[in-house]
Specification:
Oligomer: single chain
Structural class: alpha/beta
Low-confidence stretches: none
Number of helices: 6
Number of domains: 1
CATH class: Alpha Beta
CATH topology: Rossmann fold
Strand content: 15-25%
Radius of gyration: 16 Å
Mean pLDDT: 87
Order of helices and strands: EHEHEHHEHEH
């Protein structure tokens, strides 16, 4: 049992709806398993759209990053990130990079070397790990895997009925 309220922070951007769907289903799953958990979801697209200034996170967080790249094959060309640069700006803001526990990448496996390339680039740029990846909207197995990673990183005890 968790004695104190644990706050899990999820920072993401979703343009096609896939990442948002995954974060929503992950949140539902975590709250079902841990009713006393607090889950903070920060959609970077909303901050940018509403022209809200970036802010320093007060809690460790996990970033969810879909892959949108400019054409090419992701090896010798076409590895220029597009559309998700606001997430990089948010992570680079203040001390946020030091509070990021890692990144979870998503994409389409059909894109071969470009699959989750943006997450790998952020990992290299900021020095935090790629914790997991999922394709498109992710499956229940992906949600359970990521929930397990979150439980470990935030030191959340697993329920006996899991």
């Amino acid at each position: 049992m968790e004695n104190k309220m644990t706050k899990v922070s999820l920072v993401y951007i979703s343009l096609s709806g896939n990442t948002e769907s995954f974060v929503r289903r992950l949140t539902d799953y975590l709250l079902e398993q841990h009713p006393s958990l607090e889950v903070e979801k920060i959609h970077i697209k909303d901050l940018v759209k509403e022209r809200q200034p970036f802010f320093e996170m007060d809690n460790p967080f996990i970033a969810f990053l879909p892959t949108y790249l400019e054409g090419g094959n992701g090896v010798d060309n076409g590895d220029v990130e597009i559309l998700t640069t606001d997430v990089g700006d948010f992570i680079a803001y203040g001390q946020n990079a030091s509070k990021c526990l890692g990144v979870i990448g998503s994409g389409n496996r059909n894109f071969n070397n470009q699959y989750c390339l943006t997450a790998k680039q952020y990992s290299e740029r900021f020095g935090f790990p790629v914790l997991a990846d999922f394709e498109m909207r992710g499956m229940l197995g992906d949600i359970k895997k990521v929930a397990g990673i979150i439980e470990e990183l935030y030191h959340i005890e697993k329920n006996e009925n899991q």
